[in-house]
Amino acid sequence: MKLSALLLSTFVLSSSAAAAPASVTGRTGLARAGRTGVRNVRVNAAKKKPQQADPGADPLWLPNTQRPAWLDGSLPGDRGFDPLGLSKPAEYLQFDVDQLDQNAAVNKAGKVVGKYQGAIDQVDGANQLSPYSDIFGLKRFRECELIHGRWAMLATLGAIVAELSTGVPWDQAGKVELDGARYLDFNLPFTLPQLTLFEVLLMGGAEIYRNTETDLEKRLYPGGAFDPLGLSSKSPDQTQRLREAEIKHGRLAMVAAFGCAVQAFTTGEGLIDNLSFLN
Protein backbone atom coordinates (compact mmCIF):
# COMPACT_ATOMS: atom_id res chain seq x y z
CA MET A 1 0.00 0.00 0.00
CA LYS A 2 2.79 2.35 0.96
CA LEU A 3 4.63 1.44 -2.21
CA SER A 4 1.56 2.15 -4.36
CA ALA A 5 1.02 5.54 -2.70
CA LEU A 6 4.67 6.42 -3.20
CA LEU A 7 4.55 5.48 -6.90
CA LEU A 8 1.32 7.47 -7.38
CA SER A 9 2.75 10.61 -5.77
CA THR A 10 5.93 10.33 -7.86
CA PHE A 11 3.86 10.07 -11.06
CA VAL A 12 1.75 13.12 -10.16
CA LEU A 13 4.81 15.26 -9.37
CA SER A 14 6.54 14.24 -12.59
CA SER A 15 3.40 15.04 -14.59
CA SER A 16 3.13 18.50 -12.98
CA ALA A 17 6.81 19.19 -13.59
CA ALA A 18 6.45 18.22 -17.22
CA ALA A 19 3.33 20.34 -17.71
CA ALA A 20 4.77 23.45 -16.06
CA PRO A 21 7.48 24.17 -18.67
CA ALA A 22 4.96 23.65 -21.42
CA SER A 23 2.64 26.28 -19.97
CA VAL A 24 5.54 28.64 -19.29
CA THR A 25 6.77 28.09 -22.80
CA GLY A 26 3.32 28.85 -24.13
CA ARG A 27 3.08 32.07 -22.20
CA THR A 28 6.60 33.04 -23.26
CA GLY A 29 5.72 32.34 -26.87
CA LEU A 30 2.64 34.52 -26.62
CA ALA A 31 4.64 37.31 -25.01
CA ARG A 32 7.28 37.09 -27.72
CA ALA A 33 4.63 37.06 -30.37
CA GLY A 34 3.06 40.12 -28.77
CA ARG A 35 6.37 41.95 -28.67
CA THR A 36 7.07 40.99 -32.25
CA GLY A 37 3.68 42.32 -33.27
CA VAL A 38 4.35 45.61 -31.48
CA ARG A 39 7.76 45.81 -33.13
CA ASN A 40 6.23 45.15 -36.52
CA VAL A 41 3.65 47.86 -35.94
CA ARG A 42 6.36 50.33 -34.95
CA VAL A 43 8.53 49.45 -37.94
CA ASN A 44 5.58 49.77 -40.29
CA ALA A 45 4.67 53.08 -38.72
CA ALA A 46 8.23 54.29 -39.22
CA LYS A 47 8.17 53.19 -42.84
CA LYS A 48 5.08 55.23 -43.64
CA LYS A 49 5.78 57.89 -46.22
CA PRO A 50 5.35 61.51 -45.14
CA GLN A 51 2.28 63.23 -46.40
CA GLN A 52 2.87 64.92 -49.70
CA ALA A 53 2.01 68.58 -50.03
CA ASP A 54 -1.16 69.23 -51.92
CA PRO A 55 -0.09 70.66 -55.30
CA GLY A 56 -3.43 72.41 -55.57
CA ALA A 57 -3.10 74.17 -52.21
CA ASP A 58 -2.79 77.93 -52.21
CA PRO A 59 0.75 78.92 -51.09
CA LEU A 60 0.41 81.73 -48.56
CA TRP A 61 3.00 83.75 -46.71
CA LEU A 62 1.60 82.54 -43.38
CA PRO A 63 -0.21 79.22 -42.81
CA ASN A 64 -3.85 79.22 -41.77
CA THR A 65 -4.46 82.69 -43.19
CA GLN A 66 -6.92 83.92 -45.76
CA ARG A 67 -5.88 85.42 -49.07
CA PRO A 68 -7.21 88.97 -49.62
CA ALA A 69 -9.85 89.20 -52.29
CA TRP A 70 -7.82 91.68 -54.35
CA LEU A 71 -4.81 89.31 -54.56
CA ASP A 72 -5.81 86.42 -56.79
CA GLY A 73 -2.36 84.80 -57.03
CA SER A 74 -1.92 85.53 -60.73
CA LEU A 75 1.19 87.65 -60.22
CA PRO A 76 4.52 85.81 -59.84
CA GLY A 77 5.48 85.50 -56.18
CA ASP A 78 2.01 86.47 -54.94
CA ARG A 79 1.60 84.87 -51.49
CA GLY A 80 -1.31 86.97 -50.30
CA PHE A 81 0.84 89.33 -48.21
CA ASP A 82 -0.87 92.68 -47.79
CA PRO A 83 -1.65 93.13 -44.08
CA LEU A 84 -2.19 96.88 -44.43
CA GLY A 85 -4.41 96.60 -47.50
CA LEU A 86 -2.29 99.03 -49.50
CA SER A 87 -3.12 97.40 -52.82
CA LYS A 88 -6.84 97.16 -52.13
CA PRO A 89 -8.80 98.91 -54.90
CA ALA A 90 -10.00 102.32 -53.78
CA GLU A 91 -13.76 102.79 -53.61
CA TYR A 92 -15.22 106.30 -53.73
CA LEU A 93 -18.58 107.27 -52.23
CA GLN A 94 -20.89 109.82 -53.80
CA PHE A 95 -22.83 111.93 -51.31
CA ASP A 96 -25.93 114.01 -51.79
CA VAL A 97 -25.74 117.76 -51.22
CA ASP A 98 -26.01 118.84 -47.59
CA GLN A 99 -28.98 120.93 -46.55
CA LEU A 100 -27.96 124.55 -46.18
CA ASP A 101 -31.18 126.23 -45.14
CA GLN A 102 -30.34 128.98 -42.69
CA ASN A 103 -33.97 129.22 -41.55
CA ALA A 104 -34.24 125.52 -40.68
CA ALA A 105 -33.56 124.36 -37.14
CA VAL A 106 -31.67 121.30 -38.35
CA ASN A 107 -29.75 120.82 -41.59
CA LYS A 108 -29.32 117.18 -42.51
CA ALA A 109 -26.11 115.98 -44.05
CA GLY A 110 -26.19 114.41 -47.47
CA LYS A 111 -26.49 110.64 -47.62
CA VAL A 112 -24.59 108.22 -49.76
CA VAL A 113 -26.31 108.01 -53.11
CA GLY A 114 -23.80 105.87 -54.99
CA LYS A 115 -20.42 104.25 -55.14
CA TYR A 116 -17.67 104.64 -57.65
CA GLN A 117 -14.57 102.52 -58.12
CA GLY A 118 -11.83 104.44 -59.86
CA ALA A 119 -9.90 103.10 -62.81
CA ILE A 120 -6.63 101.65 -61.54
CA ASP A 121 -3.65 100.07 -63.27
CA GLN A 122 -4.08 102.28 -66.30
CA VAL A 123 -1.15 104.09 -67.89
CA ASP A 124 -1.29 107.46 -69.60
CA GLY A 125 1.57 107.75 -72.05
CA ALA A 126 1.22 111.54 -72.25
CA ASN A 127 2.13 111.98 -68.58
CA GLN A 128 5.72 110.75 -68.50
CA LEU A 129 6.40 111.73 -64.90
CA SER A 130 3.41 110.01 -63.30
CA PRO A 131 1.84 107.71 -65.90
CA TYR A 132 -0.33 105.59 -63.58
CA SER A 133 -3.92 106.64 -62.94
CA ASP A 134 -3.72 105.53 -59.29
CA ILE A 135 -0.56 105.42 -57.20
CA PHE A 136 -2.01 102.59 -55.08
CA GLY A 137 -2.63 100.27 -58.00
CA LEU A 138 -1.41 96.69 -57.77
CA LYS A 139 0.50 96.87 -61.06
CA ARG A 140 2.33 99.99 -59.93
CA PHE A 141 3.29 98.31 -56.66
CA ARG A 142 4.64 95.34 -58.58
CA GLU A 143 6.60 97.62 -60.91
CA CYS A 144 8.14 99.45 -57.94
CA GLU A 145 8.94 96.15 -56.25
CA LEU A 146 10.63 94.77 -59.36
CA ILE A 147 12.69 97.91 -59.95
CA HIS A 148 13.82 98.11 -56.33
CA GLY A 149 14.62 94.40 -56.32
CA ARG A 150 16.71 94.65 -59.50
CA TRP A 151 18.62 97.62 -58.17
CA ALA A 152 19.16 95.84 -54.85
CA MET A 153 20.59 92.78 -56.62
CA LEU A 154 23.03 95.00 -58.52
CA ALA A 155 23.87 97.01 -55.39
CA THR A 156 24.70 94.07 -53.12
CA LEU A 157 26.83 92.38 -55.78
CA GLY A 158 28.49 95.67 -56.70
CA ALA A 159 29.34 96.48 -53.09
CA ILE A 160 31.05 93.12 -52.62
CA VAL A 161 32.96 93.24 -55.93
CA ALA A 162 34.06 96.86 -55.45
CA GLU A 163 35.28 96.24 -51.90
CA LEU A 164 37.20 93.13 -52.95
CA SER A 165 38.75 94.99 -55.91
CA THR A 166 39.70 98.27 -54.24
CA GLY A 167 39.76 97.52 -50.52
CA VAL A 168 37.54 100.55 -49.89
CA PRO A 169 34.31 99.82 -47.97
CA TRP A 170 31.20 100.58 -49.94
CA ASP A 171 29.95 103.13 -47.40
CA GLN A 172 33.28 105.01 -47.61
CA ALA A 173 33.44 105.15 -51.40
CA GLY A 174 31.96 108.65 -51.51
CA LYS A 175 34.84 110.08 -49.46
CA VAL A 176 37.33 108.63 -51.92
CA GLU A 177 35.47 110.23 -54.83
CA LEU A 178 35.91 113.66 -53.23
CA ASP A 179 39.66 113.39 -53.81
CA GLY A 180 39.17 112.49 -57.45
CA ALA A 181 36.91 110.36 -59.59
CA ARG A 182 38.10 106.74 -59.62
CA TYR A 183 36.58 103.47 -60.75
CA LEU A 184 38.27 100.16 -59.82
CA ASP A 185 41.47 102.08 -59.04
CA PHE A 186 41.43 103.82 -62.43
CA ASN A 187 41.46 107.62 -62.43
CA LEU A 188 38.63 109.28 -64.35
CA PRO A 189 39.08 112.72 -65.95
CA PHE A 190 35.85 114.08 -64.46
CA THR A 191 35.02 116.18 -61.46
CA LEU A 192 32.33 115.26 -58.98
CA PRO A 193 29.84 117.90 -60.27
CA GLN A 194 30.33 116.60 -63.79
CA LEU A 195 29.67 113.01 -62.70
CA THR A 196 26.54 114.14 -60.85
CA LEU A 197 25.27 115.94 -63.97
CA PHE A 198 25.96 112.87 -66.14
CA GLU A 199 24.08 110.63 -63.72
CA VAL A 200 21.04 112.93 -63.58
CA LEU A 201 20.86 113.18 -67.39
CA LEU A 202 21.34 109.45 -68.02
CA MET A 203 19.04 108.17 -65.29
CA GLY A 204 16.43 110.85 -65.89
CA GLY A 205 16.43 110.16 -69.61
CA ALA A 206 16.10 106.42 -69.02
CA GLU A 207 13.15 106.94 -66.66
CA ILE A 208 11.38 109.29 -69.05
CA TYR A 209 11.89 106.84 -71.91
CA ARG A 210 10.61 103.95 -69.75
CA ASN A 211 7.46 105.87 -68.85
CA THR A 212 6.56 106.25 -72.51
CA GLU A 213 5.58 102.55 -72.52
CA THR A 214 1.83 102.14 -71.98
CA ASP A 215 1.72 98.34 -72.06
CA LEU A 216 1.65 97.17 -68.44
CA GLU A 217 3.28 93.83 -69.28
CA LYS A 218 6.18 95.42 -71.15
CA ARG A 219 6.70 97.94 -68.38
CA LEU A 220 7.42 95.04 -66.02
CA TYR A 221 9.16 92.68 -68.44
CA PRO A 222 10.38 94.57 -71.53
CA GLY A 223 12.22 91.58 -73.00
CA GLY A 224 14.05 92.22 -76.25
CA ALA A 225 17.56 93.45 -75.51
CA PHE A 226 17.03 92.65 -71.83
CA ASP A 227 16.58 88.97 -72.68
CA PRO A 228 19.34 88.26 -75.23
CA LEU A 229 19.19 84.49 -74.69
CA GLY A 230 15.44 84.33 -75.11
CA LEU A 231 14.94 82.41 -71.87
CA SER A 232 11.49 83.84 -71.25
CA SER A 233 10.13 82.95 -74.68
CA LYS A 234 10.55 79.17 -74.62
CA SER A 235 7.39 78.19 -72.75
CA PRO A 236 4.82 79.86 -70.50
CA ASP A 237 5.75 77.58 -67.58
CA GLN A 238 9.41 78.51 -67.80
CA THR A 239 8.52 82.18 -68.09
CA GLN A 240 6.44 81.94 -64.93
CA ARG A 241 9.24 80.15 -63.06
CA LEU A 242 11.83 82.73 -64.12
CA ARG A 243 9.63 85.63 -63.10
CA GLU A 244 8.92 84.07 -59.73
CA ALA A 245 12.64 83.39 -59.22
CA GLU A 246 13.43 87.01 -60.08
CA ILE A 247 10.96 88.46 -57.60
CA LYS A 248 12.19 86.11 -54.87
CA HIS A 249 15.83 87.02 -55.47
CA GLY A 250 14.88 90.70 -55.60
CA ARG A 251 13.11 90.53 -52.25
CA LEU A 252 16.06 88.74 -50.69
CA ALA A 253 18.45 91.32 -52.18
CA MET A 254 16.42 94.19 -50.71
CA VAL A 255 16.68 92.59 -47.28
CA ALA A 256 20.41 92.06 -47.85
CA ALA A 257 20.94 95.69 -48.90
CA PHE A 258 19.10 96.88 -45.81
CA GLY A 259 21.23 94.55 -43.69
CA CYS A 260 24.41 95.95 -45.25
CA ALA A 261 23.31 99.48 -44.35
CA VAL A 262 22.49 98.51 -40.75
CA GLN A 263 25.78 96.64 -40.46
CA ALA A 264 27.82 99.60 -41.71
CA PHE A 265 25.98 101.99 -39.39
CA THR A 266 26.39 99.85 -36.27
CA THR A 267 29.93 98.54 -36.78
CA GLY A 268 31.55 101.22 -38.95
CA GLU A 269 33.25 98.51 -41.01
CA GLY A 270 32.85 97.21 -44.52
CA LEU A 271 31.30 93.97 -45.67
CA ILE A 272 34.56 92.05 -45.93
CA ASP A 273 35.91 93.35 -42.60
CA ASN A 274 32.76 92.17 -40.84
CA LEU A 275 33.53 88.64 -42.04
CA SER A 276 36.95 88.60 -40.38
CA PHE A 277 35.59 86.51 -37.50
CA LEU A 278 35.40 83.56 -39.91
CA ASN A 279 39.19 83.45 -40.27
Poorly predicted segments: 1-34, 40-46
Order of helices and strands: HEEHHEEHHH
Strand order of the largest sheet: 1-2
Major β-sheet profile? 2 strands, antiparallel
Approximately what portion of the residues adopt beta-strand conformation? 5-15%
Number of strands: 4
* Cα-to-Cα separation, first versus last residue: 101 Å
Fraction of residues in H or I helices: 40-55%
What structural class do you assign from the helix and strand content? mainly alpha
Provide the gyration radius in Å: 38 Å
Shape: extended
**How many DSSP H or I helices?**
6
Mean pLDDT: 76
Q: What is the compact description of this entry?
A:
The protein is 49% helix and 5% strand. The protein is mainly α.
Throw out a few tags for this protein:
mainly alpha, 279 residues, two-stranded antiparallel ribbon, extended, single chain
Question: How is this fold's topology laid out?
Answer:
Blueprint: H1 2-46, E1 91-95, E2 112-117, H2 138-166, H3 173-178, E3 182-183, E4 186-187, H4 192-210, H5 216-220, H6 236-267
Antiparallel strand pairs: 1-2, 3-4
Helix pairs in contact: 2-6
